[in-house]
Description:
This protein is an alpha/beta fold. Helices cover 38% and strands 13% of the residues. It has one domain: Flavin prenyltransferase-like (Rossmann fold), CATH 3.40.50.1950. Strands 3-2-1-4-5-6 form a 6-stranded parallel β-sheet, with helices on both faces. Helix 1 (20-32) crosses helix 7, helix 4 (116-124) crosses helix 5 and helix 4 packs across helix 6 (156-168). The termini are far apart. This is Flavin prenyltransferase UbiX.
Amino acid sequence: xxxxxxxxxxxxxxxxxxGTPYAAAVLRGLLGAGEAVDLVVSRxxxxxxxxxxxxxxxxxHWQEDLRTWxxxxxxxxKPEAVALxxxxxxxxGDFAAGPSSGSYPAKGMLVVPASTAAVAGIALGLSKDLLxxxxxxxxxxxxxxxxxxRETPLSGVTLRQLVALDEAGAVVLPASPxxxxxxxxxxxxxxxxxxxxxxAAGVPHGLYRRWKSDV
Length: 215
């Protein structure tokens, strides 16, 4: 059991963009690496999770819903059991939550997927919900922030906001799967993007086959 005073989680923010399988793969990767996780799911993301998986995400039943979500395979196959003892969930409207304060001991934050609305809110410092507030705190505390934007095409406004995030120190990581890793299924393409997110955070994983030069 972790000692509370030594717990330093990664904050994972799930916004309302399409791409909840990316969030699930990142969460599985973090837990598989032994990392602690603080999870924030925006209100619009709840609808996206329901649309893309058929699974509700409820504050009062978050453990049950999260386990069902993470254990649902994207491709046909036997789901793997997921231990949630290192996950702490914060409702998106809870501005008194730990991640809303710079004194809260977090390693950094991963926003997966990041909608254009979330990108705008973080870039402008709007802090309209806990996800945006936690991201703003991550930037001001100079902690790692990875923004996995999932939108196409991108407007000039969003491109300028992404540049602003890059200049503020965030890693802007489009959800752009690579095919060179020999992916043969949709889940492998999802895992590639999730693996790149974890790479940017410095978290070890085995989600995809890395490039090896023949030279």
